[in-house]
Fold this sequence. Notes:
Layout: E1 12-15, H1 19-29, E2 33-40, H2 43-49, E3 56-63, E4 70-77, E5 95-99, H3 103-112, E6 116-117, E7 123-124, E8 134-139, E9 145-150
Parallel strand pairs: 1-4, 5-9
Antiparallel strand pairs: 2-3, 3-4, 6-8, 7-8, 8-9
Amino acid sequence: xxxxxxxxxxxxxxxxxxxxxxxxxxxxxxxxxxxxxxxxxxxxxxxxxxxxxxxxxxxxxxxxxxxxxxxxxxxxxxxxxxxxxxxxxxxxxxxxxxxxxxxxxxxxxxxxxxxxxxxxxxxxxxxxxxxxxxxxxxxxxxxxxxxxxxxxxxxxx
Length: 157
C-alpha cells in the first residue's frame, strides 16, 4: 500500500508588514539573493490562505546565501493585520537560523543600520553541541527572530 510522505524542503514563509522594507533588510543587510517578486490576486491563492477579505498578496522570494534554502516574504493587502511578534519562549513563534562569519563585525555593522537584537552582544556558547560558537538573535523589521551563528573555530557547518 502506498502512502504520502515528505520528500523535501521547498521554502519557509514570513508574513511582513512592508515588503520593500523587509527586502531591504534581508537582501541589503543580510545579503540574501533576490529571486523574484509578484503581486498575487489569483483566487486559488486566496483559497489556500483562507483570508477572504484579502484583495492582494505581495510576494517576494529570496535565497539564503551559500544554500539552496528559499524564504518567501508575504505582505497581505486589503485586510486588517496584526503583529505576530512575540518573545522567543512564546509558542507559535519561529525563527530562521543562519551561519555567519565574523559575527562580531556583522553585529556592529547591523547595529549601525538600526537592527535590533535580543541581547547586548554576541554570546559565547560554553556547552552542548555548539560549544565554542558565538550566537545572537536579531529582529527583522516586523520582530521576526533571525538567529546568527558563528560556528566554533569558524569551521563552518
